[in-house]
Design goal:
The protein has 158 residues and is an all-beta fold. The chain has no helices and 16 strands.
């Protein structure tokens, strides 16, 4: 039986049979979540990362570069988005962390990008395109007149 290993900073955190998910990960559909794509993996469904300092899990030596559903790394005390998937087919939630920058985050988010309640000082590194709302309110060190260089399909909330 094929297995998938999830590593964090070169340490194996989980090893599980193809199709099963470890604790702390939720999937929106009952299907094999991983599909190999150029440069890494596509995660089919929603991905919620709990109780890990996000450093893009590595599956069989390749990063997750796309998530077809929502990606949620909120409320984890993260200080960086480095290693986040580059394409998110749903919402990207990174609110209530300790982020000072959006560098390393996704480039494209199909729906909403929520980075409120962090410690952002600028919006450098914001996605190129957000299909829905871009919410960065409640970042006290972020200038109120700052706007990202992002194509936003919905509202910009600061």
């Amino acid at each position: 039986m094929n297995t998938i290993e999830l590593t964090f900073k070169d340490e194996i955190l989980y090893s599980w049979p193809m199709g099963d998910l470890p604790n702390g990960f939720e999937l929106s559909r009952d299907l094999n979540p991983l599909e190999e794509v150029e440069g890494g993996w596509k995660w089919n469904g929603e991905l919620r990362v709990d109780d890990l300092e996000w450093d893009n899990p590595i599956f069989e030596g390749k990063p997750v570069i796309e998530v077809t559903g929502n990606f949620d790394c909120s409320q984890n005390n993260l200080t960086s988005l480095e290693g986040s998937p580059k394409i998110v087919g749903g919402d990207f939630y990174c609110y209530r962390n300790k982020l000072i920058s959006l560098e390393g985050g996704p480039e494209y988010v199909a729906i909403d990008f929520d980075c409120y309640n962090n410690k952002l000082t600028s919006l450098e590194g914001a996605p190129v395109k957000v299909g829905g709302d871009f919410d960065c309110e409640s970042n006290p060190d972020l200038p109120k007149d700052e706007r990202p260089d992002t194509q936003i399909g919905g509202e910009f909330i600061n």
